[in-house]
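Hey, I'm writing a tutorial for new members on how sequence and structure tokens pair up, and I'd like a real worked example in the thread rather than a made-up one. If someone can provide the structure for the chain below, I'll link this post from the tutorial.
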Amino acid sequence: MIRTTALVLSLWTGTAFAEVDPGQAALAAAARIEGASVMLQEADTARDRVSALTETVKAYEDGLVALRAGLRQAAIRQEALETELDAKSDEVAQLLGVLLSMGRAPAPVLLLHPSGPTGTARSGMILADVTPALQQDVTKLRSQLEEVALLRDLQDNAADKLRQGLDGAQTARASLSAAISDRTDLPQRFTEDAIQTALLISSAETLDAFASGLNDTIGEEMDIPSPDALSLRGDIPFPVQGRILRGFNEEDLAGISRPGILLATQPRVLVTTPVAATLRFKGPLLDYGNVVITEPAADILFVYAGLAETFGQVGEVLPAGSPVGMMGGDSPLVDEILTDLENGSGIRATETLYLEVREGQSPVDPAIWFAME
């Protein structure tokens, strides 16, 4: 019935879709992935290759998040439209009958009435009243059918777009890791004393003890000014897209509390320093997993724990937006994503990043520094 209706109504003028449309949102997200592909091709010739590749990775990440969200909303919208069309199939059949009858009969015949001139006049007035209403129904129906067709096409092509985005993101991450290893243009405030760092790691039993002894790991110091992010307190964005799982000093299920916050993130997403900062430490530490510690201002430390990979060289002054690490886990396969979409589940945030802020020798609530909303 729907296919027949589409054929009959194909000659009628349709209307534009609503301004906020799930299908258009998914198309826009797919376009963002296409744009990230272009950015990846251009990154090799960029003056700052690390910065270009960082933006490329983020563009892929944002595009994939938007595409998955758009496809999920598109699937919900498609189901709602098809349910609505199925529910009024009888009404559609009647509308088709009227339209087909009007289409076959010449206009003068439609206006003639057996009772004579008076009946003919009344018939003409009724037809004049009915035609705009029919046009409105036809226009609405045609718009719905076109939207269903668009949403079905999005679903059919979803696997290719997702695969393109996932493959591009993987390539961009590998290129970024290589570019960071080759980077030599960042200012260096000091060199690391590897022996003192190893001794500190082996002797420190808590993060407090490690942070207290961090100055002992400095080797040769250079005449490079320290970053100063004090003016940005309270407005600093998170180092990664995520949602707060546990707040400052909030106990976990085992009754253990830590003076930081826990963010739920997606696997393999990039972690960046949101402000210019000196890289003070990177590597495995205690039971925190891989840790990165940066110094955005004198005597201020940002601690990022739970990373799978860490980037940079200790002592470097990192510009805002520089990658410091990457979350672990496995990127979902296309089939897994499509299954999640079919089941109506959202995007899986399977990894966790621990974020702690230290002023002097004491941890403070990250809400003092970061824009928690």
